[in-house]
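On clarity, I found the account of how folds are encoded harder to follow than it need be. For illustration, here is how one protein appears when written out as sequence plus structure tokens:

:::
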Amino acid sequence: MNELNYLNAVLLGIVQGLTEFLPISSSGHLAMTQKFMGLDATNQQLLFFDILMHLGTLIAVGYVFASPMLLFLRRLRKELIGPPVRNKFACRITTLTIVAVIPTGIIGVGFKNEFEQAFGSTMGISIGLFITGVLLALTAVVPRGKRGWKKIAWWQAALVGIAQGAAIMPGVSRSGSTICMASFCGIKRQWAAQFSFLIVAPVIVGAAILQMKDLAKMPNMDLSSLSWGPLVSGTVVATIVGVMSLRVLLSLVRNARLHLFSPYCWTMAIIIFLDFKVTLH
């Protein structure tokens, strides 16, 4: 079955909205859900739907962080074109964001083919989920970070960017790996979460552009022939669920509860691994 209907689209939207922000890997869950539904991951409509769902979760980020983002943009404008300011807070955040995004882009582009092949490997997803569980478990024993924006070094921002790049591997949670890495670097929990979602915006936009270029090269690609009803419905669902799950994640980060997701990740890793073993036999 290759057609994306309303039911499949809504279910995939729910999975995307929940797992994009909760530290349990959206890529791994989407890959397994699509397999369970019997959908062809190389289908043009499904590939385009994947782009739309990620843009939907980007809208969710913008909605949840609307207030601090507006304040940040106003401050950045003031620092760039206004009277001289001693503490260029917004410029520093912008620089750290660029430093973090560079290694993510290098990893994403440089290992694009390898990561795409990994999406078809249930063993790869199982390993990725196990790694995610380990990272989350470590947050329970790492001392509480004390670094604010002023004390975040460029190499720490780069490490968070590398963690984000590694999360392209299916099964590895992007939010989980970046927040964990920021926490391991001693960054305050509040800033760790905000930095994680600040650096995801350019990555999602960049990935969407690359995916659209790949789709445009596919034979018989015609956007007018796509079933837009399911596409739009699933994207809206992904956005709404994404807003709710992002707020839950922020609460968990503030209360140092990310490690609670470790058992779930390990359980899913075992289930997927056993399914892999059964498939082999």
Notes: The first helix runs from residue 6 to 21. The chain is about 75% helix and 0% strand. The two ends are 24 Å apart (CA to CA). The chain has one domain: 6-280.
